[in-house]
Amino acid sequence: QVRLVESGGGLVQSGGSLRLSCETSGFIFSRYSMGWYRQAPGKERELVAVITTANGITNYADSVKGRFTITRDNAKNTLYLQMNILKPEDTAVYYCHAWRDYYNNYLLNRWGQGTQVTVSS
Fold it and tell me: Staple 92 to which of 25, 40, 61, 105, CB 3.0 to 4.6 Å?
């Protein structure tokens, strides 16, 4: 059974930091490209950051470049998102996403339940 469980969200003041974690099970984590998405009230879900598996290439939304860092620990089957210099506009529910097997192109496309991040001004 595939599971993605996010944690680390909370309430933080503008300029503060949070570290999100996504613990996974039920699939071979090291083979999959992974990502973080977010959805603010009244808005569509948007990509925050993605990371490949074999070479760890990362890509970020322009709005978070230089402030957020996506990393992965394949030994722990866990994905992370370090968020620094947080702004009120970063307030959203953050979701972990398991996308595609790098080696056989199998599309998993599974989501976690989300974790709330609220940044006060």
Answer: 40
Token pair in block for residue 14: 């503008």
Query: Looking at residues 88-106, what average pLDDT do you find?
Result: 95
Residue labelled with tokens 């192109």: 105
Mean pLDDT of 40-57: 92
Q: Return all residues near 34 (Cβ < 8 A) that are at least 6 apart.
A: 22, 50, 51, 53, 70, 72, 79, 96, 97, 98, 99
Please report, in angstroms and rounded to a whole number, the separation of the first and last CA atoms in the chain: 40
Q: How far, in Å, are 32, 33, 42, 119 from residue 104 at the CA level?
A: 10, 12, 36, 40
pLDDT (0 to 100) of residue 54: 67
- pLDDT for 12-22, tens place per residue? 999 999 999 99
Residues 68, 48 contacting (CB under 8 angstroms): yes
79, 21 in Cβ contact below 8 A? yes
Rounded average pLDDT over 69-93: 97
